[in-house]
Each structure stands twice: as C-alpha cells, then as structure tokens.
Amino acid sequence: xxxxxxxxxxxxxxxxxxxxxxxxxxxxxxxxxxxxxxxxxxxxxxxxxxxxxxxxxxxxxxxxxxxxxxxxxxxxxxxxxxxxxxxxxxxxxxxxxxxxxxxxxxxxxxxxxxxxxxxxxxxxxxxxxxxxxxxxxxxxxxxxxxxxxxxxxxxxxxxxxxxxxxxxxxxxxxxxxxxxxxxxxxxxxxxxxxxxxxxxxxxxxxxxxxxxxxxxxxxxxxxxxxxxxxxxxxxxxxxxxxxxxxxxxxxxxxxxxxxxxxxxxxxxxxxxxxxxxxxxxxxxxxxxxxxxxxxxxxxxxxxxxxxxxxxxxxxxxxxxxxxxxxxxxxxxxxxxxxxxxxxxxxxxxxxxxxxxxxxxxxxxxxxxxxxxxxxxxxxxxxxxxxxxxxxxxxxxxxxxxxxxxxxxxxxxxxxxxxxxxxxxxxxxxxxxxxxxxxxxxxxxxxxxxxxxxxxxxx
Length: 458
Fold this sequence. Notes:
Blueprint: H1 14-20, H2 23-26, H3 30-46, H4 52-71, H5 83-95, H6 97-100, H7 108-143, E1 149-154, E2 157-163, H8 164-189, E3 191-192, H9 208-215, E4 219-220, H10 224-229, H11 232-259, E5 266-267, H12 286-309, H13 322-347, E6 349-350, H14 352-360, H15 366-375, H16 380-396, H17 406-412, H18 420-423, H19 426-431, H20 441-455
Parallel strand pairs: 3-4
Antiparallel strand pairs: 1-2, 5-6
Helix pairs in contact: 3-4, 3-9, 4-5, 7-8, 7-13, 7-20, 8-11, 8-20, 11-12, 11-13, 12-13, 15-16
C-alpha cells in the first residue's frame, strides 16, 4: 500500500507507477534526504513532538540505511515513487511505528525542496573546485607565454598583436566571474525550506532554526508557500552552468580554429584527439568539439525548466518533478567537461613561430603607427586617415608596413622618422601596452599575481 493510499480504493495502474516515479532520477539525493531526515528527527525529539526513544531509533536506523545504500545492499522500488518515500518505507519496514512518526510536521513538498538545495550546494562547491583547477591550468600556460606574441582578433579579422598569456588571462577572468556567480547563487540557496509543510506550515511547535543550523543553512524561508514552490535556485544554478559552458564553448571554438592547418597556432595532443574511420591522415579535435556541442544541451535544460515553471500556480505542482532531471544533467555535463578541459589545454603544443608569423600579417601594427603619429603631434583623426592610406599603399605593394622604406612612409606623412621601425615592431606593440589590463608582459604578470592571490594558489 502507498504511504499516501488511505483515501484510495484502487491500486495505482502499473504504467502510472512507472510514469509517476522519479526514483531513477532523484535517487542520487539519498545522502541529502537522510541528512535532512536525521536533523528533522533530532528536532522532533528535542521539542517533544516524538519521544526520545523514537528519535534515537530513527536516527540510528537512518545511519544504517545510509551505510547499506552506499554498500549496494539497498534496492530502490519504483512503486515507492521517489527517494524520499523509498527511504521512509525502508525505515518503517525496519522499525515499524517509530519510523512512521518521522514524517510528522513535514511534507514531501518541503522535503524535496530541502534535498535539492543541499544537493546543488554540494555540486556548486565541486564545480567551483573544478573551475579553480581550470584557472590554475590557464595561469600556468599564461606564465609560460608572457613573450609569446600572437594576433588578437575582432570580427575574426587580425586586429592587434597580443600575447598568448594575455589571451589565456581573458578566459581566466571569465572563469573567475563564473566562480563568483556560483558563490552568489549559493547565498540564495542557503535558505532552508523545511518546516513549510505542504504549503501552509505546521501546527506542531517545531524549531526550524536548529534544523537549519545543523544542515549548514544561513537562514530559513519566510513564506511557506514560496518555500515549497520556489525553484529560482534551480534556474539560477542552470544559468550559472550555462554561462560556464558558454565560456568553455567559446574557448573550444578558438582551439579548434587554432588547431586547423589554416591557423596552425596549436597542435592537440594525441591523447585528446581522435581519428577518422575512412581518412587515415585525420587527427580531429573531438574533445573540444564535444564540449562546444554539449553547451547546447545545457542551454536546453535551462530553457526546459523556465518553460516548466512559467505557468505554474502556487504552490507545489507535480510538473516541478521535471526540474531535477534537467539540472542534474547540467551538473553532470559541466563536470564531465571540466574534468577533461584542463588536461586538454595543458597537453596541447603551442606553435610559437606560427603565432608570431600570424601577428606579423594583417597590418596588426597599424594602430601603433597612428599612436606614433599622435606622439609626433598629429591629431588622432588625421593620423587615422594617414595610416589608412599607408595600409592601402602597402596592400597594393604586397608589403607589411614595416617593410616600406622611410621615403615611402614620408610620402604619406613627413612627420615619420627612422624611429618608427622600432616603435611598430611586434615586441614594441605588445610591450607598450603596460597599463593595468594591457598585454605587456609586466601588466599580464600583475594580473596573474592578483588572480593567484584571489584563488590562493602558488
């Protein structure tokens, strides 16, 4: 008989049992469910709502059930619907009436809201640790490539010379914001809903604050309807994960381009590449492509949960059972990607000569010619026009700007002197941008130091 079957006269159809059940999805929350039940039982005993003897046997048996689940000795049942009722049924089967008293002053509605908050808080901590590993890899590559000059791009057109270190730090900054965002999200998750009951609270004299403290929450929800119907924290977690995946996807897109023969800036390690079933020469960047592709499913999970929630009246509705499959998939997908991504970038070969050659093409030092003229007293807008004409002249003659003779340059602007060549070399273009956030080695090294201090890594 179902734990809720008192008012029913017929057994649930077998197909409905399977359709209604979420144990396949939510069984992963067994630790959180047992921890929440132990804290709830301890509070019930302390408040005299159940006897001390019942409290003690409930807690002892729940601890034994946890051990049995982790050893594989427990088989969850579909007809018990979910992790909450499975554990409660196992408890009741083992200790009888005492087990039936555990659910006093709570509902599955506030129980599941508690469990998923606890699960996602733990997941967020794990993701943050993995993001620190990713940033550590980026900082290592950056520290080793302060002088590795490469072209920077806008509109996927060569723009100005930068360094690989500067490029890596751009992504390190993105992932640092991701960590901050997860921390901020966690603040709103650390509000405990248990005690909200089904939607109206409870008539029993419970102590919500003691339960919240035991479970590591900062506070309790202030409205019982909101406590059971809120899934903002799920959506916010999915959004945070989607942003991390977007940053990974952008990075992977660049790595895929850089790994191509047309760019040749990097070569993926064999351990993070695959071959073709028909073309023996192929070495494909499949890991990067899969990460890029998996960002789409994470976006879909966010959109799916938004769509589920958008038309739900208060308070709890069974539709909300759909939240877990989506958010768990997002968590799993991101963790899978963060497991391989740092290893992939740490093993890639950096083709520094090819990067430098790329920076020398495309007139990437044109802005520095304009800056040179400004320093000679030419107004910037005039300098911009002059350099545009120099670039056009160089294109016609199939030369780089610094391959033009001084006489050819002076024809465009008499203010140009011999010192222009040292002023617009690739090294000068990079080294001259030494302000905070610039691409000069000392500026990038300062950024590396600041980020390491924030992450508390050496």
